Amino acid sequence: MQIHIRPFKTSDATELQSAVLESVGHLSPWLDWATPRYLLGDARTWVDESRVLWANQTAYRWIITNEESRRILGSVEISQSSAGAGLMGYWLRRQVLGKGICTQAARAALDYVFQRGLFEQVDLYIDPLNAASLAVAQKLGAELQGERADGIIYRGAAKPALHWRVSAKSLSAQEGPTHNSRLSSPESVERLASECERADGVYEFKRSLKNARL
What we know:
Order of helices and strands: EHHHEEEHEHEEHH
Helix content: 25-40%
Shape: globular
Strand content: 25-35%
Oligomer: single chain
Distance between the termini: 23 Å
Structural class: alpha+beta
Largest sheet: 7 strands, mixed
Number of strands: 7
């Protein structure tokens, strides 16, 4: 399946809600905002917040889409962390699991930030029981840094997480079919971001009630 990533548009909210509600079963053990009560208003808040964060260059959130149907397949995010590195998260909707899509999308996002010098390294904090997410990190060439006792906040409580780190060097050294996948180039992603801003304007920031990492 050919995919690409792009910034959020205001028109994405309805499809985003649909993707989340379809995927509650496999997302909710890891993401506390993925519940049957995920409302259209929650999706709109997330989209609006994503656009403001992108404009402020504090977080880059992309929609993962199918090039043919343009359906939302999931999302990937790289944001600034307190340590100055990037912080990555990702998720996929249920119907496209097991196809390598998350690895392709995450690699495209990493290419974007590394080629622009936005971050020298990107960290991932993953629940030790989340085998699917751990597999993505390994396919990206991420290196295990150890375990952090409070690496994840889930339903208000700190949980241990495995700390992984990926750099431009480790990403390029990781060979595989995803490296040559036909995804949006950094230039086309930047152009899409500009088009989104011109078409929809910049929205006043409203802190999301669903402010967990993707």
